[in-house]
Amino acid sequence: MKRLLAALLAAVLCVTLSAPALAAQSVTAHTTLAGSTQTQRTNIEIAVSRIDGFVVPSGARFSFNDTVGPRTKAYGFQTAVNGRGVKVTGGGVAQVASTLYLALRELGDEIWFDEKKTYGDKFTGGYVDSGADAILVDYSSGVDFAFTNYGAEMCIGMWATDNNLYCTLTVGGEAQEESFLEWIPSTPTQNSFAPLSGASIDISGASDALRNNILLAASSINDTVLASGDLFSFNDSVGPRIEKYGYETAVNGRGVKVTGGGVAQVASAIWLAVKGLDCVAIVEKSTYGSRYNQSYVYSSNDAILTDYADGTDFSFRNTGAAPITIATYISGDVLYCDIYQN
Fold first, then answer.
1. Dihedral, CA atoms, 33, 89, 187, 116, nearest 10 degrees?
2. pLDDT tens track for 274-303
3. Which of 107, 190, 193, 205 is the most exposed place for a label (fewest CB within 10 A)?
4. Are 17 and 9 in contact (CB under 8 A)?
5. Best CA proximity match to 67, nearest among 156, 169, 161
6. Tens of pLDDT along 182-218?
7. Strand intervals (E) in the chain
8. Are 204 and 183 in contact (CB under 8 A)?
9. pLDDT in tens, 251-273
């Protein structure tokens, strides 16, 4: 109840501070929180705190990723199931973008969506009725939700109750910018850590399906933190490579088309990054060997083979005294893996 009253007060302040001499109009949308886990709610609340009270002037562009920032553990985000049923750091944040989208849609032609991608038929959540309304956002891979406000100045109010997540857009008046605190995006959290090693793989020749699979796997692993003694399992981190979770048919490391083909490239990039580290002990590792006929790594000894269905895993343990962070991401036509010491 205290959170609800605080949110309502924030909404009132939003209107009051926005030129009380002029009449303001508002629209509201909501999505259900029924069935949300505590970790999802934590991630949602963090994202909401970054957006609530944000003012978008007339003619200005709003970026969800710039406003919410990196979804990493250093910023308080936790591992939770996302809109396609996969556990990622920051899972649940897309519901905030979806709720904002539903409210913005009520404003009609005043809003122009510059960047908008949805889960579509890959959506497995229940917070909206259709996957076409389930907005997909991913800070690490640059998948953003952005719009330009061509109407009057707008104030975004967001809050959560026990059952629902709400977004109210108050339009009209001239907001006093000094009355609102806007969160300034920081550089990626890993920049504050000590770099240990890194590796990269050229994916410029990858098909759309192959790139999709690589991106899904990399996003599942990105920002994984291993405390001293922790075991990293590729299969446990990425999960099943099946159509239900968005994986497509693509060529694997021995030239055969399989669902999830290309995922082993992510495992290979991680292997290349960790194989020279004294603080890493390999537990399980298989390669394509003589069957390898692709070109993403130079040696077949570096072409890691993984198969969730038959239990072929790539795993290693952090044997060092300090935690390490695994960053896996795509930038342009390159797949990167960077290892940092926390």
1. -50
2. 999 999 999 999 999 999 999 999 999 999
3. 205
4. no
5. 156
6. 333 333 444 456 789 999 999 998 999 999 899 888 8
7. 25-32, 54-56, 61-63, 79-81, 87-89, 111-115, 146-149, 154-160, 164-171, 194-202, 224-226, 231-233, 249-251, 257-259, 280-284, 315-318, 324-331, 334-341
8. no
9. 999 999 999 999 999 999 999 99
